[in-house]
Amino acid sequence: MEIPAKLPFSKRRLRPRVVISYIFDYVIIIACVAGFAILNTIEPFHQHFSLTNISIQYPYAVHERIPMPYALCISGAFPLVLIILYTLFIDGLFSHHKPHDAASGKRKLRGPHRWKDRLWELNCGILGLLLAQGLAFVITQALKNACGKPRPDLIDRCQPRAGSKDLFPGLSNSTICTGDPALLTDGFRSWPSGHSSSSFAGLVYISLWLGGKLHVMDNRGEAWKSLVIMAPLLAATLVAVSRIMDARHHPFDVITGSMLGIVCGFVAYRQYFPPLTEPWRKGRAYPIRTWGTEPSGPETVRLKGFRQDSSTALRNPEEERMDPPDIPRSEHARPDTSTYIHASNPYPSNVYNRRPHDLDLDGGAWSSSEDDLSSGYEMRHGHTMGQNPGPDHNAHQYDPSNAYVSQTQPLTANAGIHVPDAMAGPGRPLTNIPM
Fold this sequence. Notes:
One of its GO terms (cellular component) is membrane. This protein is mostly helical.
């Protein structure tokens, strides 16, 4: 198979190892599918059981409330369709920074995201969903075979021979069963619940994905966002509860299976997307992977003017700058010095929230599909350092008279600082230096 030299809709070329790194992701997902298929053919361990145990004497439900194909549609097909529709058609429709068409001068309806941005988001979104489901299925099936716990309807599946009794002392085993061998084999796969783990894996993932796109943990407190992201969790819970109603699983099996699915969904999401606690990233996927660089730490989030970071993976700022036309160019200039933003401003522009990039791509800096047009959250010139001005922009201006005056450095005429008489030393004029 020939490795593509560049991303779709992009003029920049990719090195082979960058492409190979994401090919491995799909290979791992395919390996998970193959592993599940193999594990499903293995005879599980058969635990001993008691014929007098009422917890395994439930009747076998011929018709399940939510069969596995329906559960896969709920936890797999629905999130997949949602990711495709939102990424390709909805994302950017409500953006406040829509670029203007060069010919007509009108704002573009699709928003600031180009096709290569959308394709990158689509790639990462699908990869995360498949990884969540793949991990859940493989881990669940491995635990089922290893544990071999009887289902609540095992006695009905077993159809013990007439006159069978528990050994004394001891318990019965599967040798007394006369029922369908396939049903009997599946009857020893109670823990953990596969419906529960797969449903929570897919729906927790899509819930986190929606939370990132909707900026659910910003400082606006919009309750409808919480309602939207909780809906998938409700669906996952109903699927899990149906397994108890059908006597396919014990409550403990459903609870632990759900916990496993939550972990798989969270881990898969964080492989490709930033945490919800960083709403200024707007749920945009991580850019192309870095190679040979240290992982980003908390300080890189606070560094202003940090240029070598991994949020610039798909975009060439010099060639494809998309500044909003109604904001002066000076408002978007980034200083080259590494100045710290005060911790009281939790919404710096995402251009400062980036990991070091090893410039794996020929031609210099790239940008990712992260939306770096959130100028409303970035620090602007003329405002106090550390302030997060509101809509009225009535922030207090910096007062140089309150600044610390060095006792070792001579004052210059460009300092713009008023020197009190008490602080004037030998050779220093007792005047107000013009500001």
